[in-house]
Design brief:
Keywords: Membrane, Transmembrane, Transmembrane helix
Distance between the termini: 73 Å
Largest sheet: 2 strands, antiparallel
Helix content: 55-70%
Strand content: under 5%
Number of strands: 6
Protein name: Membrane protein
Structural class: mainly alpha
Strand order of the largest sheet: 1-2
Order of helices and strands: HHHHHEEHHHEEHHHHHHHHHHEE
C-alpha cells in the first residue's frame, strides 16, 4: 500500500539504475567490498513497498532484487568465493529444514477455512513452491552472500568499517528527519512507505528515511553505534564518534533500541575483556522463546509494570496489548504446532460470524510460528543464532585480542538483531546479513585463514608489515660467494 502519493518516475529509475551502480562498484573495488556496499546500499536507499509482480515467482522488492543482482555480480567477478562458501552446506543446512517445512505446511493444510463471509483457501504444492522461492531470495540468499564475502578476520574488519561508514551516512538523514519530519522518501520517490502517524513519538518525529519503519532505522543506527565502540576499543576511531551516534540513536525515538543501548553499550565500552557468553545467551533466548512464552515462563505482567514505571502508562498499555494478542495467537498456533497454518492469514483469529480480524501481530517469531509451525520457526531462526553458538565453542582458538574484539562486537550485533525479532517484525534481511557475516568469519577460526593479520593502517605500518614478511636477503661471503642467511 502506498501512503500519501504514488511512485514517481525516479522510484522506477532507481531500480533500473541500481544494477548499473553494482557493476561500477564491482569494476572499481574488490568483489567482497563491492558486494558489501551494494547489499547495504540497496536496503538502505532503494524505495520501500514498491514490488514487481513477475509470472510464477512471488513479487520482488528492493531486498530480493538487491540480493539477486549482487549474486549475479559475484558470479561474474568472484565465482570462487561462491563455490568456497558451499551453498546449502554447513550453516545453511538448517535452512533446508525451513524448505522441508514449507512442503509439509502445504500438505497438512489442504482444508479451506470459513469465517463468516470470508473463505481462506486450502494450500497446494504451488504455495510450497512460492513460499520456498520467497524464503530463498529473501532470507537465505542474503545470508549466503554475507558468508561468501567474509572469509577471514581481515575481511570481517573491512565489513565493520563499511557498515560503520554507512551508519554514519544514514545518521545525517536521521537527524534531518528528526527535525523536519520523515519526508525524504516522499520527496525522492513520491510517496510515504507507511502511515505517517506511526512516525509521531514523544512530541517529535521518528525518522524512517528510506526504510519501512522507524524501528528498522533505529536498529541500524544502534548497530552502527556498537561498531563505533568496537572500533574505538581497537584504536581506529575516537570516542566522540560513538557519542555522536548515540545521540542520533536517541533522536530515533525507539524505546526498544534505547533499552538495548542503555544496557549493552556500557558493557561493550567498559568491559575490558571481550565477552562471548552474552551473545550466546541472546541466541539461546531467541531460539527457546516460543517455549518460554508458551509455558508462561516469561513474566509478562512484571515486564508491563516495569515498562509503565520507566516509559509511562501509554507504552505499558501498548506492550500489554501486544502480549494479549500473542496469547491468542499462541492458542491458535498450538492447534497445528509442527507445520503451522500456512499463508493467506490462516494463522490469525477471526470472528466466526462477521469474519473480522480480531488480533494484531507484531513479533516476527509469532508470525513464523503460526505460519510455518515449530519446524518453520527453527529452520529460520537457527540460521540466525547458530553462528553465535559456534563462535562460543571456538572462542579459545581466537588468540589475537584485536580479533577477539572484532568477533565479540559483531556477535553482539547479530544477537541483538535476532532478539529484536521477538517484539517486532522483520523489516528487511539485515539480521540475516549480520548473522551470515558472522557465520563466514566463524568458519575461518582454527583454519589457515584465521592467522591472516588485520591489515595495518597507514603507509608506514604497511611498509613495516611487508618488510617483516619479505624473505631474508642472502649474505655475501669472501670472493663474492653467496652463503645462507
Amino acid at each position: 500500500m502506498f501512503w500519501d502519493g504514488a511512485p514517481n518516475v525516479l522510484a522506477y529509475l532507481a531500480f533500473l539504475a541500481f544494477p548499473v551502480v553494482i557493476v561500477v562498484l564491482f569494476t572499481r573495488m574488490r568483489p567482497h567490498i563491492a558486494a558489501a556496499y551494494s547489499l547495504l546500499g540497496g536496503v538502505l536507499f532503494l524505495p520501500e513497498v514498491l514490488e514487481f509482480d513477475l509470472p510464477v515467482i512471488p513479487p520482488l522488492n528492493k531486498g530480493t532484487i538487491t540480493a539477486f543482482c549482487v549474486l549475479l555480480a559475484m558470479m561474474w567477478k568472484a565465482p570462487q568465493r561462491l563455490s568456497a562458501a558451499r551453498a546449502f552446506r554447513g550453516f545453511d543446512f538448517v535452512f533446508v529444514l525451513a524448505l522441508f517445512g514449507n512442503v509439509m505446511t502445504s500438505i497438512t493444510n489442504g482444508d479451506a477455512i470459513v469465517t463468516g463471509p470470508v473463505v481462506r483457501p486450502a494450500l497446494s504444492l504451488y504455495d510450497a513452491f512460492a513460499g520456498s522461492v520467497k524464503d530463498t531470495l529473501g532470507i537465505w540468499l542474503p545470508y549466503f552472500l554475507a558468508r561468501s564475502i567474509c572469509r577471514t578476520p581481515e575481511e570481517l574488519a573491512e565489513l565493520v568499517r563499511i557498515t560503520l561508514r554507512m551508519a554514519i551516512a544514514y545518521s545525517f538523514f536521521c537527524l534531518f528527519e528528526a527535525r523536519f519530519s520523515p519526508q525524504l522518501h516522499r520527496w525522492v520517490y513520491g510517496y510515504h512507505a507507511a502511515d505517517f502517524s506511526m512516525t509521531l513519538r514523544g512530541g517529535g518525529y521518528r525518522p524512517t528515511v528510506f526504510m519501512l519503519h522507524g524501528l528498522a532505522v533505529a536498529n541500524f543506527v544502534l548497530s552502527g553505534t556498537m561498531l563505533s565502540i568496537t572500533q574505538w576499543k581497537l584504536g581506529k576511531t575516537k570516542a566522540r564518534l560513538a557519542a555522536y551516534l548515540a545521540v542520533a540513536l536517541a533522536l530515533c525515538r525507539s524505546s526498544g533500541a534505547l533499552v538495548y543501548a542503555v544496557f549493552f553499550l556500557p558493557l561493550m565500552a567498559f568491559v575490558k575483556k571481550p565477552r562471548f557468553v552474552l551473545p550466546l545467551i541472546l541466541g539461546v533466548l531467541v531460539l527457546t522463546f516460543p517455549i518460554l512464552r508458551g509455558t508462561g515462563t516469561v513474566p509478562t505482567e512484571w515486564i508491563v509494570e516495569k515498562m509503565e514505571a520507566v516509559f509511562g502508562e501509554e507504552r505499558a498499555l501498548s506492550l500489554w496489548f501486544r502480549f494479549d494478542n500473542e496469547d491468542t495467537l499462541l492458542e491458535r498456533a498450538r492447534e497445528r504446532i509442527w507445520f503451522g497454518w500456512g499463508g493467506y492469514d490462516r494463522n490469525r483469529v477471526f470472528d466466526p460470524v462477521t469474519g473480522e480480524d480480531m488480533v494484531i501481530t507484531d513479533g516476527d517469531w509469532m508470525i513464523q510460528l503460526g505460519v510455518g509451525g515449530a519446524v518453520g520457526f527453527v529452520g529460520r531462526y537457527a540460521l540466525l543464532v547458530l553462528p553465535l553458538f559456534v563462535l562460543y565453542r571456538k572462542r579459545k582458538q581466537i588468540r589475537d585480542r584485536k580479533q577477539q574484539l572484532l568477533y565479540a562486537g559483531w556477535a553482539m550485533i547479530a544477537g541483538l538483531n535476532a532478539l529484536e525479532l521477538l517484539p517486532n517484525g522483520l523489516f528487511s534481511w539485515l539480521p540475516y546479513f549480520y548473522s551470515g557475516v558472522l557465520a563466514g568469519a566463524v568458519s575461518a577460526i582454527g583454519t589457515a585463514r584465521a592467522v591472516i593479520p588485520l591489515r595495518p593502517r597507514g603507509p608506514a605500518a604497511r611498509a613495516q608489515q611487508r618488510a617483516s614478511l619479505a624473505p631474508p636477503m642472502p649474505k655475501q661471503g669472501r670472493g663474492g660467494r653467496v652463503v645462507a642467511a
